[in-house]
Structure formats: C-alpha cells, structure tokens
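Progress note, project year one: complex with flavin-adenine dinucleotide.
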Amino acid sequence: MDEKKLAAQQLCQRIQRLLGADASVYCWEPMSRHTTFGIGGPADCFVEVKTEQALRRLWMDCCRKGHEPLIIGAGSNLLVRDGGIRGVVVKLTGVFSAVEVVGERVLAGAAAALKEVASTACMAGLTGLEFAIGIPGSIGGAVYMNAGAYGGQMADVVDRVRVLTEDGDYCEWSQKDLGFDYRRSSLQDGSHVIVRVAFGLHSGDAEQIKATMEDYTLRRAAKQPLDLPSAGSVFKRPPGHYVGAMVEAAGLKGVRVGGAQVSEKHAGFIVNRGGASAKDVLELIELVQTEIRKKYAVDLETELKVVGED
Ligand SMILES: Cc1cc2nc3c(=O)[nH]c(=O)nc-3n(C[C@H](O)[C@H](O)[C@H](O)COP(=O)(O)OP(=O)(O)OC[C@H]3O[C@@H](n4cnc5c(N)ncnc54)[C@H](O)[C@@H]3O)c2cc1C
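Model obtained:
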C-alpha cells in the first residue's frame, strides 16, 4: 500500500475510535459518489456524523491537529479535483436530517434536502419556499450559498441559524448576522458549520403554493439539462448580463473538453457527458472565461466551489 493510503487508513481508524457509533467512517472514499457532477478523486477520511456531540468532537480534534475538515452537503455546487481531498470530509446525517413545522416556522437540520423542506412547507400551507423546490442542495449548502431561483433566495426566508463556530461552540445567529448577498453569506468568510436553520414563513393557500411549485418545476425541466450530471450554473450572473445567452452568442454551446461539455440545452451549465475529469471541467471553464473576456470584456466568476488537489 502506498504512503498516502496508509496515512489515510491510520487517520480513519483514529477518527472511528474517537466517534464510535455516532459516525460512519470511509477510507479513501471517491468523492465522485458525493457530487452531482459525478466527478472527484478520493477523500482520505470521509465521515458521516450523526450527532452534535460527535460533530464538535471531530471538529475540535481536526482543528487541534491543524487540519480543518471540509463540510459538504448534497455536493450539488462542488467540483472536487482529480487528486481528491487530503484530510477529513464531513457529511452530516442522523439528527441533522430532521424537519419540523412549528406554527409559521419550519425548523430543519442542515442535512435535510431543500426540496423536502420546501414540500413540507407546502403541505403545511406555508408560503415562502416555493422558489426552492427544484434546487438539489441540502439546507446547509443552500444557506451557505444563499441559493435562489425565480426571484426568491434563502436570505428572504432564513430567520435563525444554529452554527458550530471555529472555537467549537454552538451558537444561534440571526438573519442580520449572516451577511447575505448574491450567492454569498458571511459563513463563506470563516470556519463555521451550519447545523440547523429556522425559516420564517407565512400562512398561505396550499393549493396555490403547490401550483407555483409545479410551474417552477416545469420551467426548470424545459430549460435545464436535468438528465445529465452537472453542478448547476457554473458562473455567477454578472450585473446586466445573462451567462447562458453570452456563452451561446460566443458560439460555445456544445463545446467539449474531454468528457465535459457546455450544455446544448443551457449554455450556463457544464455537463458530464461520461468520464469527465475535474481537469476537463476546469479547462472548459477557463476556455469559456477567456472567450467571454475577449468578446464582452466581462470576467465570469465561478459560482461552484472548487476543492481538493490535482
Ligand atoms: C441541476 C442543478 C440545478 C441547480 N439550480 C440552482 C438554482 O436554481 N439556484 C441556486 O442557487 N443553485 C442551484 N444549484 C446549485 C446548488 O444546488 C446550490 O448551490 C446548493 O445550495 C448547494 O447545496 P449543497 O448542499 O449541494 O452544497 P455543497 O455543494 O455540498 O457545498 C457547497 C458549499 O457549501 C458548504 N457547505 C455545505 N453544507 C455546509 C454546512 N452544513 N455548513 C457549512 N458549510 C456548508 C460547502 O463546504 C461548500 O463550500 C443547482 C445545481 C444543480 C446540480
């Protein structure tokens, strides 16, 4: 066994001893299994954490050793490089998946699927989360990214967030502490784990809420390449422009690098046509950025998060 894998195995054994039954630990886990792109090299130590106590213990242990873990949600906004991730990757599960309706509030663990939370709100006759129905992320990832669609965004509905801070304390942040902006929250500036979110919604007509969600679902299916693996929109929207239209007008629709392709259906997406590597995707991103800079003098900033080593 090579040195890297041996070190990974020792790390995994230590973490499993530390957390016991409160976690499942996977050694040299392919990240392609945990991203909607279906791309990504192995993580040394992939840990599914089931309780708040175990999360704190793991977090403190990693930080003491100078290796902050990477927290992932549904992996729907992630590109993991082909060499994978050294150290610990954490995915929340267990208690972090709970969803509860209390009056006009929905309380959801960070691991709950955004779609499930939106559906729960709909069934309870609560309006506000209709925009979220087709976004394939977790609650944690959606708040971190301030995910949004069809004129709505997480910033409009998040009331309070429970976070594990870099010092290992659990605390409650209010909406104004979260510094929401376009596809941004202040959580991106530090090392915090989102563990639970309280949404402030309003009573509405369940039939109307359902109809709006169905409309958004149809519009999404008509425009987006949902049949192919992707990470959604690759680039943030530059002020005054639409990325898809710019990329299409630059003649880049359908352009390929290896297994990665600018979607033929929506030029703001890059899709994995089979066997794409992270290197293919990164080269294609660079090609698009270069052409758009030449044609429009616009710098496209990536929305997806790129992690790991080459
Ligand atoms: C087909 C498709 C359509 C999409 N449509 C939209 C859309 O309409 N609007 C939109 O905004 N996005 C869209 N996306 C992108 C993506 O779904 C969102 O960005 C989503 O919010 C990411 O959530 P996630 O759980 O998958 O996060 P991940 O991709 O797992 O992680 C994203 C970032 O969040 C961090 N993170 C995740 N969980 C936590 C946590 N608990 N605590 C701290 N940090 C955390 C990660 O470290 C990472 O930096 C789409 C993606 C796809 C594949």
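The CA atoms of residues 37 and 164 lie 28 Å apart.
Residues 36, 70-78, 92, 110, 135-138, 140-142, 144-145, 147-149, 193-194, 224, 226, 230-232, 305 surround flavin-adenine dinucleotide (CB under 6 Å).
No further modelling is planned for this target in the current period.
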